[in-house]
Design goal:
The complex is a heterodimer of chains A (about 450) and B (about 525). Chain A is α/β, with parallel strands linked by helices. Chain A contains 14 helices and 12 strands. In chain A, the strands form 4 sheets. In chain A, strands 9-6-10-11-12 form a 5-stranded parallel beta sheet, sandwiched between helices. By secondary structure, chain B is an alpha+beta fold. Classes of the chains: A alpha/beta (about 450), B alpha+beta (about 525). At the A-B interface, helix 2 and helix 3 of A face helix 3, helix 4, helix 7, helix 15 and strand 7 of B.
Chain lengths: ~450, ~525
């Protein structure tokens, strides 16, 4: 037989242990709401925890099988051999003694949080102490893998599953939603829009450049590279003031997502949208900074990752609408930032009702014309609400007249189209007269809220 | 330039062929040697062969995940020569290094001789083993091609990318291969005219037909491992003795008992029980027939292991096992393992290897099994246990003791249940539920995979409102009582649950089923 030598590359002979699956994970807004729900409520997701126990068990069993083979087949150094034998003992112990017990506890909903698991491990180690025969130190390390049980299972648009640890939920969700927004916004057709996230397009220069590149007057087309922009070099602070009153508890569509969930996810997506945007720009400082101000008693401005996480985890739709207080908190916060620089400040309010808790003492001037309007009409609206509307109007008007900063205000009212004829819309419109106009958003379209806010208020204001 | 670097290896290869010619009188001609420059790849191929029986079979994503986890922790055996006993024989080796030390040269030479012995056996044997394995190899390659072409095409024709397709097709082939091989096939028979509906259906039908063919072929394969290994180890020992006698290589001797210390690289060929036992059985055959040539002819003429074993009485075989297990236990711990390890730790590993051989030998000797299919049917790792009827809904029950079938893979079974329905239009979605029993390490679990009615149009076969639950199967009396709180029970009106279609199950298994149905089926 003639002997021949061929060379085969890895492209022709691929590693059989490679994952075939495409790792691209497509998360829809509704799925994100589901993740948020699981994240906030460890009581759910028992089936995912049971699945995790099984997957640890089979991983361990496969490992034991391979270690057996390795001890028989592979030349080993003494420390290597020692390691394998120890690992095998531990894996066996976990597989036979620990995991059955863990599964039962998971069935009983006793292991729901990382704390539960750490406590369980502690107790287990104490118990084993009196039995001996196993290296407790390494067992404790190995048992840490049990923490995976409480990871959150996320499902993508196609139904594929993936597990992420609780700590990384916000980052992952935010990144996915933020990138989603980036994509949507850059899809805006160029010939209709003059201003872009990165600044204002200069029509004259763009036109001139298009003439030069297409060599005809008028130019036949405007190419992407012809577009001239003025780079934005002013800082912007964006305050997203989000309603968290009782009414936000209403669900918006199938799957049990509430208005609040929608608003929270929108806040998260905007928060990450600006984070991504800032990272893409090579500037010494962040162009946009977004803070969320929840509308609730004693509002606090949320402007760091940690606070954001806390807000997402604990936010609840309950109580009255403390909008005046929240707006005041935002103003106080905004005035402290960059005291001596001229910056843009954007207030974006998302609500599904009217404020109903006035703030005292109140130091702004109220509008007498608006007062007259409320006095003259016959209305069911409560006096407290009217007082709040007057206060808000007073605050906004004074902001508009403040020359030290460039204040922008936009107001999103959640509700169906029929709201236009109701008092809530009419009053709000009156209150905002001369300042801005209320934008009605359909709760069922809450997944597009982020896009809408960007287009209608922040970027093109 | 690589050719020059491999020059030393080629010299060793040619020497090994010469040795083989001297020792056996002829050389094999129909084989391929694949030398991996990247040893990781060899480890992977070796594992695939170990898990599925052929080097090109598609693993389920569960198997891949588990093996990758083991690889990260460095639990996978390495530096082993891998031989696939088909025709042509496929020999996989990791390259030790380009410049060989005397010891590495010796190791490699023996490895080549060992592999040539396999190759010669495959060329000469009367059994169908080698030819069948060659067919299986081909079928696996076809399946792989079919899968990648279809994924490619599916992604090309559709607007929204089918990002799920790779994993789904991979699991489809992996799972259905396991089930069909184990003889569970009563639950999928896609009608031929479903082809025209979608590319996806067409692929499934094509793949299922091929897997069916593969299973049929595999089940007919003769059991031939003992003969293969015995012959190879016999020749290998001859080669070691021959080279040492020629004094081409000097191996150190142990201080205590003057026994030879073999190069560490030969551990995989010398230490495992299968080599020890089969080699001794072949030597015993030689004492029976006296003449080596005649003994070889005999070995080539056996169709399967049972014919080989029947050369001896059962008592003789029992003796062979018992005596050699004892001598091996002392030898192996001294020679191949560190003196710091405890004897009982090491020996338990080898005892496990011996136990597997004992089970295999006694089973085929007593029941006269000659084919792979018979062995599988004796103790199937996957079996169908009938179904439970809940109102008008069927919940199928399986036992699947294979690490290839995890929870994610149940979606494949579910979607194939759909094919069973009379009103079959498309593979998705249907509403069949499954309970699977499985022994994982030390736990015996029952898993429920229930699918509820979809209100939306599925975007992919994974896109289903699924509930999965898992519970331990145990004899303990209070095991299934713990959490049915009263409030919940009131919510569901009493359902009509019918257990008469179930096949032999234990009482704990029945308990687990009823628990899962109560807890899981109505949870959404």
């Amino acid at each position: 037989m003639p002997h021949r030598i061929y060379f085969v590359t890895e492209a022709e002979f691929a590693d059989p242990l490679q994952h075939y699956s495409n790792q691209e994970f497509i998360l829809e807004f509704e799925d994100a709401a589901q993740v948020l729900k699981l994240w906030r409520n460890p009581h759910l997701g028992r089936s995912s925890r049971e699945g995790a126990v099984l997957s640890i068990a089979s991983k361990n069993a496969v490992a034991i099988e391979n270690i057996l083979q390795k001890i028989m087949n592979t030349p080993l150094t003494a420390p290597e051999e020692e390691r394998l034998i120890n690992e095998m003992k531990l894996l066996r112990f976990i597989g036979e003694r620990v995991l059955p017990d863990v599964l039962e506890r998971v069935n009983r909903n006793e292991l729901q949080t990382v704390e539960d698991i750490l406590k369980y491990i502690q107790e287990l180690l104490k118990e084993i102490k009196y039995e001996g025969s196993i290296d407790l130190q390494s067992l404790a390390e190995k048992l840490n893998q049990l923490k995976d049980i409480v990871d959150i299972e996320i499902t993508d648009a196609f139904g594929r599953k993936k597990r992420i640890s609780r700590e990384s939920v916000m980052d992952l969700l935010g990144k996915i939603l933020g990138r989603y927004l980036v994509k949507q916004i850059s899809d805006v057709p160029i010939d209709e829009v003059h201003k872009r996230p990165r600044g204002i397009i200069r029509l004259k220069e763009t036109y001139r450049s298009a003439i030069l590149s297409s060599q005809s007057i008028p130019p036949t087309e405007v190419k992407q590279e012809d577009i001239m922009r003025v780079k934005k070099d002013r800082r912007s602070l964006v305050y997203l003031i989000v309603d968290m009153s009782q009414s936000m508890r209403k669900t918006v569509f199938e799957g049990g997502m509430s208005r609040l969930d929608g608003a929270l996810l929108t806040s998260l997506s905007l928060y990450y949208y600006f984070k991504t945007l800032n990272r893409r720009k090579r500037k010494r400082y962040d162009m946009f900074k977004l803070a969320v101000v929840p509308i609730r008693k004693n509002p606090k401005v949320v402007d760091s990752d940690k606070d954001m996480e806390q807000l997402l985890l604990t936010a609840e739709a309950r109580g009255k609408t403390y909008m005046v207080q929240s707006v005041l908190a935002a103003i106080e916060h905004a005035k402290k930032q960059h005291k001596y620089k001229d910056i843009d400040i954007q207030f974006t309010i998302i609500t599904d009702g009217m404020p109903n808790v006035p703030s005292y003492p109140f130091n702004y001037k109220t509008n007498s014309e608006l007062k007259k309007y409320f006095n003259e009409i016959d209305t069911n609206t409560k006096p407290d609400t009217i007082e709040c509307l007057l206060q808000l109007n007073g605050i906004f008007s004074s902001l508009k007249n403040d020359r030290s900063r460039n204040w922008n205000i936009s107001y999103f009212l959640m509700g169906p189209e029929s709201l236009r004829n109701k008092e809530i819309y009419i009053h709000t419109k009156q209150m905002l007269k001369g300042i801005t106009r209320p934008i009605l958003v359909d709760p069922a379209q809450v997944k597009n809220l982020g896009e809408q806010i960007l287009k209608e208020s922040i970027l093109y204001a | 330039m690589l050719k020059e670097e491999l020059a030393e290896i080629i010299v060793v290869y040619e020497n090994a062929r010469k040795d083989f010619k001297t020792l056996v009188g002829e050389t094999p001609e129909n084989y391929r040697v694949l030398i991996f420059l990247n040893p990781e790849m060899h480890v992977s191929v070796n594992r695939v062969l170990e898990v599925t029986g052929t080097p090109q079979a598609i693993l389920t994503s569960e198997q891949i995940t588990n093996l990758r986890a083991a690889r990260i922790n460095d639990f996978l055996p390495t530096s082993k020569e891998t031989v696939y006993n088909s025709l042509p024989t496929l020999i996989y080796l990791s390259v030790p290094s380009y410049e060989l030390t005397k010891e590495q040269e010796f190791t490699l030479r023996i490895m080549f001789v060992h592999a040539f012995a396999h190759a010669l056996m495959n060329e000469k044997t009367e059994s169908n083993s080698a030819r069948t394995l060659a067919q299986l190899y081909q079928l696996d390659v076809i399946l792989k091609e079919l899968m990648s072409n279809n994924v490619y095409q599916l992604n090309k024709v559709s607007k929204n990318k089918h990002v799920w397709a790779w994993q789904y097709f991979q699991d489809l082939i992996g799972v259905i291969r396991l089930f069909t091989e184990a003889g569970v096939e009563d639950f999928y028979t896609p009608p031929e005219d479903a082809r025209k509906y979608t590319l996806f259906n067409n692929f499934s039908i094509e793949a299922i037909n091929l897997i069916g063919e593969r299973a049929k072929t595999a089940r007919k394969k003769h059991l031939h491992d003992l003969i293969d290994e015995g012959f190879a180890h016999y020749i290998q020992q001859k080669a070691i003795d021959y080279l040492l006698k020629k004094e081409e290589y000097q191996l150190p001797k142990r201080h205590e008992d003057r026994s030879i210390m073999y190069p560490r690289g030969l551990k995989a060929l010398i230490a495992p029980p299968i080599g020890v036992f089969s080699q001794i059985a072949v030597s015993k055959l030689l004492t029976k027939y006296k003449d080596e040539k005649k003994m070889f002819e005999k070995l080539f003429s056996y169709a399967s292991d049972i014919e080989f074993l029947e050369e001896f009485t059962w008592d003789e075989i029992k003796d062979l096992l018992a005596v050699n297990k004892n001598t091996h236990s002392e030898y192996v711990v001294d020679h191949w393992h560190s003196s710091r390890s405890r004897w009982s730790d090491i020996w338990s590993v080898y005892a496990y290897g011996w136990r597997q051989i004992e089970e295999y030998v006694s089973k085929i000797y007593r029941r006269k099994y000659s084919t792979f299919g018979q062995l599988l049917d004796d103790n199937p790792s996957i079996s169908s246990k009938g179904y439970v009827k809940v109102d008008d809904k069927k919940v199928y029950v399986f036992e699947a003791n294979d690490y290839g079938v995890g929870i994610d893979q149940l979606v494949i079974l579910h979607n194939h249940m759909a094919l069973y329905r009379d009103d079959f239009k498309t593979i998705l979605p249907a509403f069949a539920d499954i309970v699977v029993f499985k022994k994982v390490g030390g736990i015996h679990v029952a898993t429920l995979f229930a699918v509820h009615k979809t209100k939306y149009k599925s975007l992919s076969p994974y896109h289903l409102p699924v509930i999965t639950r898992a519970v331990q199967v145990t004899k303990r009396k209070d095991a299934y009582k713990f959490e049915l709180d009263d409030e919940k029970e009131e919510k569901f009106e009493i359902r009509n649950i019918d257990y008469i279609h179930l096949k032999k199950l234990t009482q704990p298994q029945r308990g687990a089923i009823s628990y899962l149905i109560k807890e899981g089926l109505f949870e959404l």
